[in-house]
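Narrative of activities, Objective 1.

The group set out to show that a structural description can be obtained from nothing but a protein's sequence at a throughput compatible with the screening campaign. Below is one input-output pair from the validation batch, recorded exactly as produced.
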Amino acid sequence: MSDHDQTAVFSERRRHPPSELHDALLTGTDVPGFLEHLVQLAVATLGEGVPGGVSGAVTVMRDERRATLASTDELARLCDEALFAERDNTATGAIQAGTVVVIDDLAADERLRRFRTRALSLGVRSAMFLPLDGGPDAVGALNLYSLQAHAFGAAKQAAARYFAADASRALALAVRHEHDREITEQLRAALDSRTTIDQGIGIIMGQNRCDADAAFAILRAASQHRNVKLRLVSAEIITAVSNKAPVPGRSFNG
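Output recorded for this entry:
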């Protein structure tokens, strides 16, 4: 790569620092929301200077199945659909191997013939497929499409590799944060359920003048007889006594 191209690469990276991807994580967005932000940032970054701009989509692959989870427009979505129908695994095989695939001119390239025919009918002339590795549950690709032939030259490809590496790290964090958030929600739900059940047991103890084990046996028998969860039976008891539904995480005060 020439010195001019190297300068262009680092200039593009400075204008769109990796922190923009990490900023999206700080907003608390979920993984689909993060992918929407990622693909919009990708086309803004890598489509700069390309006449007509660039369309983009993010594909996630799991258990040999592929799905487009985010796209900038209908053109990108339709191109992805055509790529999924392609029997030639040039793109997906290279992506799974962690390499970048570039098609400079679809009119002259003999690979991916089904995709090529459909993409050309949509006016697409060049494409670039970048691997994304966010961990075992988030392996996929950032797919970029342009109406211009040779839209992704050496400088764009180098900048794209930087972007894909940054995006993969940010995606791994997004997946981890969502996993942690799900665990936190599960723990909170379990604690709220336990609190409601304990409150119901306390009411039964007071009404029947029995110990906790006996009160729990009464509650469990009612749950099994009605085929209703313990938490819901307890909530009904609390509501009947206090004339208001239990508030998650708040103790019953009679």
